[in-house]
Amino acid sequence: MKLEIKGSPLPNIPWQPRAAGNEDYVWRYSANPVIDRRPLPRVTGIYNSAVVPFDGAFTGVFRTEGMDRIPHLHVGRSPDGIKWTFEPRRIEFINADPEVTRHEYAYDPRVTLIDGIHYVTWCNGYHGPTIGVARTRDFVRFEQLENAFLPYNRNGVLFPRKLGGKFAMLSRPSDTGHTPFGDIFFSESPDLVHWGRHRHVMGRGGEWWQGTKIGAGPSPIETSEGWLLFYHGVINTCNGFVYSMGAALLDLETPWRLRARLKESILTAEAPYELAGLVPGVCFPVGCLCDAPSGRIAIYYGAADTVSALCFCDASEIVERILNA
Ligand code: BMA
Asked: Which amino acid residue places its CA nearest to atom 3 of ligand 1?
């Protein structure tokens, strides 16, 4: 299959070829974690964070947690996607209406480039978790927009282009706590304020690794076979939830129609840094880089709610596996 990826070349993508003998769909960076705990004074974890190419280098929005364990968002910058420095102050979002910028907590950011502007979506505390939305041109000034949904919702992930003239978002309606359910839904908006035409995309269940809940990961990658979506799937074990990574293909023009999805997870908690941390047993994908046309993909994922790790895959190979699932 000759897969076409809609996107820009990214020759400096962080990359490591698959080790000989490794038959997994996705392989880990050998020097993981890329970002260790304590990146700033009194920050005990930095994870579930989104990285994008910016000005020939890389930037990102990172979830940090300090000694009070309340998550906030910080900007990070890197020449190569591996070595990072972080703004010591959390992002101060701007809006004339203080109700919009009212800050309780912010976590699990995604960053999506649409028509030359970077949009940040995250789990935003507003009387319970909902989806915060902001835009930036320079990663210095962030204008916060209205929350996309009523509480409770998590994992709001924008598509990198408008569909039928509308912004499009995946999300996962939830509850106030460690939600014991969850499917992925699609919504669209003409103006990033009013969201509607909600559609069910795909559900939990079936294979045990994704039996409890699922949620979209990084922004979908557009390919000639459909939108390639990495997501997290959760199993409820006698020791609590375990988070793995899955892959699916959504229809290009009607992305609430699932084309196919892998039955197996593509990455599950196995490495020491995924099994030991503040929440052991978590692989949580949020950011993704892709070099079109080579199809090299680098996925940033939070490990054990403590550190940030990197894994790699090949777009053609993973799409072919999904289509043959
Ligand atoms: C989810 C979110 C994620 C976290 C995961 C595992 O509900 O809070 O940020 O990684 O739980 O604790």
From this structure: 108
Q: What residues line ligand 1, using a CB cutoff of 6 Å?
A: 48, 107-108, 178, 243, 279, 282, 284, 302, 305
- pTM reported for the whole predicted model: 0.98
At 2 the pLDDT is: 86
Split the chain (325 residues) into runs of 10 and give each run's mean pLDDT: 92 97 97 97 96 98 96 98 98 98 97 98 98 98 98 98 98 96 98 98 97 98 98 97 98 97 98 98 98 96 98 98 95
CA of 9 from ligand 1 middle (Å) equals 32
What is the whole-number distance in angstroms between the Cα of residue 289 and the centre of ligand 1?
22
Mutate to test the pocket of ligand 1, among 212, 239, 243, 275 (most ligand atoms within 8 A of CB): 243
CA of 48 to the centre of ligand 1 (A): 8
For the chain, list the domains and their CATH numbers. Answer: 42-323 (2.115.10.20)
pLDDT in tens, 160-214: 999 999 999 999 999 999 999 999 999 999 999 999 999 999 999 999 999 999 9
Task: Looking at the CA of residue 179, tell me the nearest atom of ligand 1.
Answer: 7
Q: Give, using CA atoms, the residue closest to atom 10 of ligand 1.
A: 305
Compute and round to an integer the Cα radius of gyration of the chain.
18
